[in-house]
Write a structure and sequence with these properties.
Elements: E1 5-9, H1 13-24, E2 28-32, H2 36-45, E3 47-48, E4 52-56, E5 62-64, H3 67-71, E6 75-78, H4 85-92, E7 102-104, H5 117-124, E8 130-134, H6 139-143, E9 148-153, H7 157-167, E10 172-177, H8 180-203, H9 207-227, H10 238-247, H11 254-263, H12 268-273, H13 281-294, H14 300-309, H15 315-323
Parallel strand pairs: 1-2, 1-6, 2-5, 6-7, 7-8, 9-10
Antiparallel strand pairs: 3-4, 8-9
Helix pairs in contact: 4-5, 8-9, 8-10, 8-11, 8-13, 8-14, 13-14, 14-15
C-alpha cells in the first residue's frame, strides 16, 4: 500500500495543520471545509485566521467545499468534531471508494450510543479500513514545523506503516500501534482529565493535586481500556501519558483552559458562549461516564467531571467527595 494523496475532512485548526504537514510530505493534499464561504476565503487568502492564526497554507494545497474532491484521495483524514462523525459518514457513504482508508483524528466518544468513533465508522462505512491518529500535538506547533510525535493505530500493520511513511517528514514523527481501542480511548478521555486539571488550577489547589489527578486519571483509563479489549500499557505511550502531559499542563489546551475558568467560578454557558472552537471533553465526559457505568468500570474522576459539567454537582462539594473516598491500594 502506498499513499500519494490525502483528503483532509475539516478545516479547523487541526485539519489545517495536518493538511500543511501532508503537503510538506509531498502528498497531493485536498482540504475540505464544510462551509463554502470558508473554503473560498481560505483558498483566496491561503490563511485560516479564525482557527489557525499566523499560518500560511502552501499553494499546493487544494481547498474545496466539495466533499467528493476530498474523498478522491488515497486516504482521508477525518478532522471534524467527534460528535459530527456519524453525519460525515452518512454524507460520504455514496462517494466512498471501497478500500480507501479513513483516519480518525478527532478525539471523543459518541453521545447517546456510547460508541467509540472506530465503531461508528465501521457501522456506516464498512468498506473503509479505519485507523486512529492521536498523541501530543498542538495544531499551531505542527503548522510551524516544530518537533511532534504522534501514534497511528489500527489492527492492520501494513496500513499503519503506509500512513506512517506517508505523513512522516521533517520534525513530524509518527509511531505505529496495533491497539486502536487503547489509543482512541486515551485520546478521548484525556480531554476529560484535562478539564479536571484545569479546575484544580483555577481553584488554586496546587501542583500536588494536579499530579495526583493525572496519575489516578491514567489508572482509570487503563481500567476502561482493558474492559473494552484494549491494552492497559497503551496508557504509557504517546496517546496516553504523552497527550496527558501536554494537555493537562498547558493553557493552550481548550479543555484545560475551560476547566480553569470553571474553577474560577464562571459557568459553562458563559465560557462556551465566548468560544469558536470545540472543547471535546465537554460532550465526551457524559459519554465516558455512561460507558464506564455500562461496563462496571470505576472512574470517579471522569464521573465527577461529568457531574460538574451537567450541573449535578458543585465544584467544592465534588472535590470534597473525591477526597473522602475510601482508602485503597494503588495496585
Amino acid at each position: 500500500m502506498q499513499i500519494r494523496s490525502l483528503g483532509v475532512a475539516g478545516a479547523g485548526a487541526w485539519g489545517t495543520a495536518l493538511a500543511m504537514q501532508a503537503s510538506r510530505a509531498s502528498l497531493a493534499t485536498t482540504l475540505w471545509a464544510r462551509r463554502p464561504e470558508a473554503a473560498v476565503a481560505i483558498a483566496a487568502s491561503r490563511a485560516n485566521p479564525d482557527y489557525l492564526p499566523g499560518a500560511t497554507l502552501p499553494p499546493e494545497i487544494a481547498v474545496t467545499a466539495q466533499l467528493a474532491e476530498a474523498l478522491a484521495a488515497d486516504a482521508v483524514l477525518y478532522v471534524q468534531p467527534a460528535q459530527h462523525l456519524r453525519a460525515f459518514c452518512a454524507a460520504a457513504r455514496s462517494g466512498w471508494r471501497a478500500g480507501t482508508p479513513l483516519v480518525l483524528c478527532a478525539k471523543g466518544i459518541e453521545l447517546g450510543s456510547g460508541l467509540l468513533l472506530t465503531d461508528v465508522a465501521a457501522e456506516l462505512l464498512p468498506e473503509a479500513p479505519v485507523a486512529v491518529l492521536s498523541g501530543p500535538s498542538f495544531a499551531g506547533e505542527v503548522a510551524a514545523g516544530l518537533p511532534t510525535a504522534v501514534v497511528i493505530a489500527s489492527p492492520d500493520a501494513a496500513l499503519n506503516e503506509a500512513l506512517m511513511q506517508a505523513l512522516s517528514h521533517g520534525a513530524f514523527r509518527p509511531y505505529g500501534s496495533l491497539d486502536p481501542v487503547g489509543v482512541e480511548l486515551a485520546g478521548a478521555a484525556k480531554n476529560v482529565l484535562a478539564i479536571a486539571c484545569g479546575i484544580v488550577m483555577g481553584k488554586g489547589l496546587g501542583e500536588n493535586a494536579r499530579a495526583a489527578l493525572v496519575t489516578r486519571g491514567l489508572a482509570e483509563l487503563a481500567r476502561l481500556a482493558h474492559a473494552l479489549g484494549g491494552r492497559s500499557e497503551t496508557m504509557l505511550g504517546l496517546a496516553g501519558v504523552g497527550d496527558v502531559v501536554l494537555t493537562c499542563n498547558s493553557m493552550k489546551s481548550r479543555n484545560t483552559s475551560l476547566g480553569f475558568e470553571l474553577g474560577r467560578g464562571r459557568t459553562l454557558v458563559e465560557i462556551m458562549g465566548e468560544r469558536r472552537s470545540v472543547a471535546e471533553g465537554v460532550p465526551t465526559a457524559a459519554a465516558l461516564e455512561a460507558l464506564a457505568a455500562r461496563l462496571s468500570v470505576d472512574m470517579p474522576i471522569a464521573s465527577t467531571v461529568a457531574a460538574i459539567l451537567a450541573g449535578r454537582a458543585a465544584i467544592d462539594q465534588a472535590i470534597s467527595a473525591l477526597l473522602a473516598r475510601p482508602l485503597k491500594h494503588e495496585t
